[in-house]
Amino acid sequence: MAADAIMPAGDVGSDHEYSHVFSEVAFEPVFIIGDHRSGTTVLYQLLASTGAFNIITAYDVVCYQHIVANHLAGRSAQARQALATRFAELGLANRGIDNVAVTPDSPEEYGFIIEYSGRPQLRPETQAKFVEVCQKIRFTGRDRPVLLKSPWDVLTFAYVKAEFPRSKFIFMHRHPLDIMNSQLAAVRSLFARRNEYVAMLSPWYRELFDRPAALRITRAASTPRFGLGAAIVGRHVGKVTNYYL
To answer: What is the DSSP letter of 228?
Structure first.
């Protein structure tokens, strides 16, 4: 589902037309660093609830090409309501992989915006897009730090710190076996059937379900029968742990 499909009538246009108004905006990033299923979402929600940060929401991800235009036109609330209506039409009460509620204001990952792949990371090729994301969030928000999370960057945080030396990190830790078990359950849930919420956030995931052969291979790799999912997850978690150490 493209963002255009949920935009209110009288579309205000793309943010590309307004790049001059946010391209020089300064921002102070605060990164939550932790692997998938380590508790980053819970911490993100808790810190977001303080009102002390600008955050990236589901609305920002799904409607990314229009968030500045909507802000300037005073139509952000209307666009958020349109997204909430779409969530309701799809019967989305939570994320499917857990009981985290789904709303337009749900804190989300910048990785969905900076790279359309299954493993988006902040690196030289995506850095310009990341800066644009932070500038847009800061421009449409308040004079507060930008709070960010994208679990794939648990493997690149040294690079992130080198490129953004004034950034601050909050590290999340959970027992590796608990992370592995939770990751396996999430992966099997995501590929057993299409998760409509994730499909709205990730074009890569959405398009996978239009490629039957690739979907069959992905499902086979994640099932307990072949054990490949556990091996892949185990190797990943080990890599994350070694990188941190």
So the answer is: H
